[in-house]
């Protein structure tokens, strides 16, 4: 995780009692005050609300008068604007499917679908597979790549290796499919 030190507060902060007790977030494992820089801040907040309701309250309504809090909130929003990492839109369940299809009498092709649901550029992926397996590989549908050759079993190792966010468990083997 690369943090942007420029956007992080430095030195003693108003309204905070020192020495600091650092509480770590169960979602992103960062100290709580860093959560807002984490892409899954929503999930951090959810975790906090469930596990540390008192800390959650503090984040929502931290000490000081209401006016102070409001201006502080505005500052933070401005500051966070550019550095904020946007979470990719989640559409539907994430699932990669791989299957083998026969083409002609001897040739097999491998079909990969679902990479789009992980926000992966299909053209990049197709090119990667082509290079990796030294064979033809092309985008054929909205979220479908066809690789020339039977490489289905290899994909279970290669996909998580190339895209660590995709666990092997996300890949479903559909076996042999008729096309
Ligand atoms: Zn967090």
TrEMBL record:
Q: Which InterPro entries match?
A: DENR/SUI1_TIF (IPR050318), DENR_C (IPR046447), DENR_eukaryotes (IPR005873), DENR_N (IPR048517), SUI1 (IPR001950), SUI1_dom_sf (IPR036877)
Which Gene3D superfamilies does the record match to this protein? SUI1-like domain
Q: Which PROSITE patterns match?
A: SUI1
Q: What is this protein called?
A: Density-regulated protein
Recorded family membership: Belongs to the DENR family.
Q: Entry's SUPFAM superfamilies?
A: eIF1-like
Cite the residue spans of the region called Disordered.
60-94
* Gene Ontology MF: a single term: mRNA binding
Give residue ranges for domain SUI1: 96-163
Comp. bias intervals (Basic residues): 76-91
| GO terms of biological process kind | formation of translation preinitiation complex; translation reinitiation
């Amino acid at each position: 995780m690369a943090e942007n030190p420029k956007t992080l507060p430095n030195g003693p902060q108003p309204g905070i009692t020192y020495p600091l007790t650092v509480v770590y977030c169960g979602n992103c494992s960062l100290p709580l005050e860093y959560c807002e820089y984490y892409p899954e801040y929503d999930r951090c907040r959810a975790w906090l609300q469930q596990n540390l309701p008192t800390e959650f309250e503090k984040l929502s309504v931290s000490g000081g008068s209401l006016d102070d809090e409001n201006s502080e909130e505005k500052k933070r929003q401005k500051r966070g604007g550019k550095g904020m990492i946007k979470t990719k839109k989640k559409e539907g369940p994430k699932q990669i499917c791989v299957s083998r299809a026969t083409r002609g009498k001897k040739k097999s092709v491998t079909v990969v679908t679902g990479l789009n649901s992980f926000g992966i550029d299909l053209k990049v992926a197709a090119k990667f597979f082509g290079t990796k397996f030294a064979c033809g590989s092309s985008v054929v549908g909205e979220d479908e790549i066809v690789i020339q050759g039977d490489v289905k079993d290899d994909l279970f190792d290669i996909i998580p290796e190339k895209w660590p966010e995709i666990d092997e468990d996300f890949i479903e083997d559909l076996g042999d499919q008729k096309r």
